[in-house]
Amino acid sequence: MKGIAILGATGSVGESTLDVVARHPARFRVVALGAQRNAARLAEQALRFRPEVAALADPDAARELAATLARAGSVTRVVAGDEAMAGIATLPGVDYVMAAIVGAAGLPSTLAAARAGKRVLLANKESLVMAGPLLMRAVAQGGAQLIPIDSEHNAIFQCLPHHAGARSGVRRVVLTASGGPFRSHTREALERVTPKEACAHPVWSMGRKISIDSATLMNKGLEFIEACHLFGLAPDQVDVVLHPQSVVHSLVEYDDGSMLAQLGAPDMRTPIACALAWPDRIASGVEFLDLASVARLDFGRPDLERFPCLALGQAAARAGGLMPAVVNAANEVAVAGFLAGRLNFTGIPEVIESVMAKATTGPIGTIDDVLGADREARALAGEAVA
Ligand code: NDP
Fold first, then answer.
1. The domain that contains 372 carries what CATH number?
2. What is the pTM of this model?
3. 110 vs 125: CA distance, rounded Å
4. Best residue among 206, 214, 269, 270 to mutate for probing ligand 1, ranked by most atoms within 8 Å of CB
């Protein structure tokens, strides 16, 4: 029986994780649940899964949660505050940590889980983008295991060999990109895109921030950086192809000319179940693929002129050091500005590019360097949005 902490439990990935976990009560036990402020949903989850601890970053919401659980006679302990996330990620009864907080807010708890030697199921790509070298070092030093949840990286993880020293024959990896809802839009049409349209992804059902990132292709830019860190690859060993059906989740190319791909329905429960059970396989509840119905698989090149965010992500990966943290922070501020109606869709890459040109960059020494770069980039991006 493995004990699980789910950080970001009330979000899209968190809910999918609980769906998979609920299918295997003899295998997994929910020890802790964490979120930001959605007390009503976390209370429902806590009453159903009966974790030892439920945490909310927002203290007022945590008080509301504690009152609701007390009224229902629940024995779940409620803790509050940002630091509570790292606390529940490192509880002794926790074997696996689902890191599914959105954005830079997920960094401290992901790092803490890695240092504590947990199996880290990494959905929070932003923590790896911001602090890749630090997180990978924490994994190695803590004796942790990092299994990617992003469907593309989980596909690559599945296609890579896992016996010792087996990576030498890997030539490159290919990330697939659906292209988002606007892949056929002209530049003029992109200027008029609304937040509601951008949140309606044609294939995947996801949280708002990653939906916007998918529409701008910044999601692929972040994933490009993520792939370099996760798999120890140079940027020119990572390629991106458009694949609108989102059935091939990514590929690994070997020196002998073989390409291995992982296919499946576009449903996050597959990578989640894979990471929970690895190296076993368990049922996830997803629909099985009917290849005859899929009928065709299309591939193409992304258009970096209409979708410059991908090129900005690639440039940040090549620059290395603090630049990915700068891009991540500028993107979070620009996306929030777009969602709030203060920036148009094509303004998102403009803000990021202007911040990249002005921000102080350099090598990553400590977490304070990363947090400093994050703060400065947010301030610059705030000015650019204004
Ligand atoms: P959602 O917006 O659906 O959910 C975000 C979750 O994070 C919520 O539970 C939210 O709590 C919680 N949260 C936000 N800020 C904090 C904080 N400061 N402290 C604690 N909890 C916080 O996001 P998604 O599930 O879509 O995405 C989560 C992560 O997974 C992202 O990094 C995303 O890039 C990645 N990912 C998502 C995929 C998907 O299909 N959705 C696919 C691949 C990767 P509350 O509800 O209380 O606000």
1. 1.10.1740.10
2. 0.95
3. 10
4. 206
